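To whoever is covering the structure queue this week,

Two jobs came back overnight. Logging them here so there's a record in the thread.

Job A:
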Amino acid sequence: MRKEFSFLLLFLMLSLNGCASIEELDKYSNNSLNEIDLNGSWVFSGKFEDNKQSIESAIKQTNNVNYRGIKTTGVFDGRNTSKVKRNSRGVAHLFFENTNKIKITQTKYSLFINFNRSIVEEYSFGEVKKITIGNVIARRSSGWFNNVYRIDTLDDYGMKITEEYKLVNSSNILERLLIFRDRDLNEISVLQTYQKEP
């Protein structure tokens, strides 16, 4: 009887351990506290290549993936299965865009951000959704947090990227705070500053 009880207890503990809850993303507000207008064309202020290296370092530290290798070779093992390579656990960075020029179009319900390429990303206020690139899946939430526009991207392995857009100095400067978080909740922040084009 005692042996059966021990097995039952062990089975329940293993079952509960397997049912660990998946992190949920915050749902942000549809409205900012004040009238914030992020519309405009924005140019990076400072040394972009140094900033880019800081971002690549942050990505490498938060997911243990060779950033350049993943961008060019993909995250799968090359066979017909969709098994992720062992060193490719964090994939949130595949949904991240970095550029020295940003064009933002703000409507009543969304931000449209052109990261200086042909595709424009749409971020709807207060939205939480699943996003995909081929077989790679993550979740994203976006919306207003006080007077900051926040975008969170989270993958199933616990890597999370937070982007915060905030106007400073009479709305002529856009700060983009990037927070890269690993599955153990360690964070690395990189600040980008953009100047509004006339």
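Job B:
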Amino acid sequence: MRISAVHNAYSFTSVERSSKKPGSQVKNPISKRGEKTNLAVATFVGGLGVGARLMFELFDDGFVIEDLGQAANKYVNKNHKGLKGAKKDLFVVGTALSFIAAAIGGIALLYTLYKAPKINYEGNVNAFKKSKDMDVYIKGNEVEKELLTQMNDKAKNADEEEKAKLKEQYAKMQMAKNQVPDFIKNDKKFKMPQG
């Protein structure tokens, strides 16, 4: 008796099947997830600033520095018993700095969680506005491309009078060229889709 492997043709990943021709439609690059991520990162960075400011206010009186030094020294003595001299001092300073960084990061995380509903709402609003602007831009580019293709086809079989008229129409089209949305002009890292 011969036993062979069973080959299943099942896929558990979601596959998007479209009835349109591939490449016929340019996909809008704006997503809610991307907008919310941008806002969350910006809020976290702002929270780091708030945390640093709070830590500065705590350290301004000087009593926290002494307590922090003692806590770092206790931690190093407990977990790294064989250290002596300069190496121990470096470990104490590093531990104190890591305590400060953890406190600032914790404050930033709490600040981001506090602002989460606002991030969610603003991310949805920004994505909606930007996607509508981008849809208009993409559709305008498709229409412009189609018109230029038609003008090119006409120019291949045109006489001099028709070519002059097509040249005039081409100049008008260049003056009325599709404008790039404002949020793309201002964002240096945004890359335009190539159609």
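Note for Job B: The chain is about 70% helix and 0% strand.

Please reply-all if you pick these up so we don't duplicate work.
Q.
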